[in-house]
Design goal:
By secondary structure, this protein is α/β, with parallel strands linked by helices. The protein folds into four domains: about 240 residues, P-loop containing nucleotide triphosphate hydrolases (Rossmann fold, 3-Layer(aba) Sandwich), CATH 3.40.50; about 210 residues, Rossmann fold, CATH 3.40.50; about 200 residues, no CATH class; about 170 residues, no CATH class. The chain is about 35% helix and about 20% strand. It starts with 6 loop residues before the first helix and ends with a strand.
Length: about 850
Amino acid sequence: MKFTLKPYQEDAVAASLSSLDHARLLFQRDGQTSSVSLTAPTGAGKTVMAAAVIEALFFGNADLEFDPDPGAVVIWFSDDPSLNEQTRLRLLEASDKITHTHLVRVEPPFDRPRLDPQKVYFLNTQKLGKNALLVRGHVDDPGASKLDLGPSPDLQGRTIWETIGNTINDPDLTLYLILDEAHRGQKQSGKEKPTIVRRLITGQGQQPPIPVVWGISATIDRFQEAMKSAEATDDRRELPAVVVDPMLVQESGLVKDTVALDIPNEVGNFDSVLVRRAAAKLRRSTERWAEYAAEQGAADAVQPLLVLQTPNVPDPDDIGVALDTIFDEYPELRADQVRHVLGDHGTQQFGPWQVSWIEPQFVEDRTDVRVLIAKDAISTGWDCPRAEVLVSFRPAKDHTHITQLLGRMVRNPLARRVEGDDVLNSVECILPFFDRTTAGQVVRYLTGQIDSMPDGTGPRPMVDPRELRPNPLMAEGDPSVWDVWDALPSETLPQRGVRPTKRLVALAHALSADGVRPNALKEVKEEMHAVLDGYAVRYKKHLDEAIAQVWAVEVQRIIGRVGGQTVKYEEFVERADDRAIRSGFQEAKKAFGATIAMSYVDHLTEADPDDDDLLREAYVKTAALATVKEAREKVDHDAAEVTERWFDEHRVAIKGLPDDRQQAFEEIRAMAVEPQRTYLSRPRTRLEDYKSVDDDGQISDAEVVPLHLMCDENGDFPLSSLNSWERAAVHTELGRAGIRGWYRNPSRQARDSLGVSYRGETGNWRSMHPDFIFFHEVDGTVRASIVDPHGHHLEDASAKIRALLEYARRYGDTFHRIESLAEVKGTMRVLDLKDEAVQDAVLAHRGPAAELYESSAARDYS
């Protein structure tokens, strides 16, 4: 893959491959058809994950120990040809092994007996319609047209249905059907004629069902319901679903942190006030991206897009008025920067404006397009991460439709979070005809706040978002609050299975590329060569034994005679040939990383690089060293030590790099099996709501308080996002003597959010973000304190208390206090997690978290 997969993407790819391999075996062994589903929030990178899966099916994946399926044939199916074309381009962009020859657009005439292995065939609903050219073959085919069309060069000797059927029946091939946006085309009830999608899945007449169906969608419910129906009617087996946690997607930075929904209670059709607001947002967003690009030294700035979604039957003059309003508010726009993706592909006349059509899949790359007029096309799954403003004049109540629509808007255009800038990490949607409750639920789902769509009432949208900036008061004093902030420890979320040597090499590459340590890779090689030389001497006895094992290839011969009753076994040893030696060397590449393993061979053959015998001995010695447990562990330890030393030495230089490069170093820091200490970055902007909405939907001005690290022009911060416990904690801490400042810690994995890593109940690494950091002057020194009000009734309450406790053990000296709060029986109680007696009580406790706050380990917070 050309892209480095996020940890959650790697896990999803591994799980999907395991299920698909199981599905293949079920069909080959038992003739059993089956289905697999991948559910991932919009913006999770489903196409990238699919590319990794297809690449592994065709070519294998050594890291996952997955062998290729030599008979793998893939049909990629959607109901939108433009979505297929975008997917084809994305697969080419993501994989370095999948080429144009592997990706086939199925166009008539397509007269083949069967589909070829190691190919992805793109089909869509329109191409399989009853009068489509691909199915106009033999009239005895149940899907073919019965019309007497006469001789035509477009007619085929066989239909696409026959080609698919022959592929399924070929014992040397395995046909995988990938349903993109798998929730579509699944609706069916009663005696309705099967949809094209259902015919592919279940078959019809002589048409056999496709053996393996893989459904991919952000809203997979309809697909899973259809698969349950197929299980009942045609014995299709539903394998366990692969589900990507929305919180992990949010923490990755691939999707926006804030979705501001503006749902006015009253509006006229194409209300000019709303359109003007959208145009103003587009202008401000454009200016902010230009400022950010200049600040980062980037050649190109993101060019945000405004999407104007029309009703089913719009009045062209109404759209013309909307365009008048947009250009009145944003006169710098040009007329040729407006395009449409409506069903009529020609140039459209909207009032005085002539607007050309553009293929949806090209909108993202055509950065000169700044305003897009659309109906349903915007919600069909095509990617456009630079779409930052949406004003929709279409009604929407169905959560699947709303999810797909808003999903187009939540992707980050840089495929990463803009650290510390809430404005550039936000999107604004003006939705006058949307169901408020359902839209709020969808936002919570897309931003990782909930794992599924609930049936209850949704949260309030952000009614009055305002931008906050760093509080100038925090820079006063000696030391300043910001100075204390800069030294606070945060933790990375570990990635599994990364060798320390690979991490060190990645760090060396990055340091060299950014000019921070120009000869870093050469230094790494020299240092690791010296380490390996030293351990080769230190563990010589073990090494000699391992070398002998590499040279020796044990062979067993089985001898039987015709008519005999027994067989005889003979065992002997052959000297390894070059192929066997190179096979053993693969273990060294896994243990030390390919860079170090290969460079160590070069190091051992420096005396005479052209001596073949010396080269073989070098391969054998390196391979043997990798099997010596003591040496391997020592190399890992030394590589980790060098990595941490270099991170410390270059901390200041790394923090001075552009955001994208700092993010690259943070990803390298996280390439470890245990949490790594990192440092916070200062936030640049913050978006907060200045209105509060109660349970009855009543809107009022939010309460504001002073001394937050981010504030408005009056030095205030609104408490609209805080619950009653959190507000009580803020007021209590602001009332303490010596208060100098406070910070509402964002609940996301970001460099301006203090994170604590811990293992969840399933054993996977998770990240918690304590609610507040308060700064008080204690004995003339500014000290930070963590105060975390956390619901004891929540499922993860005990795990998060223990996580904060372990954090306190590691970094307690940095803080004045580290406390966990909860309200029990009307009284706020606190656990002092720096207190050793409290730590012992928490670690020994096995009951509900509420019992801890009621016990003698806790005290009254007041």
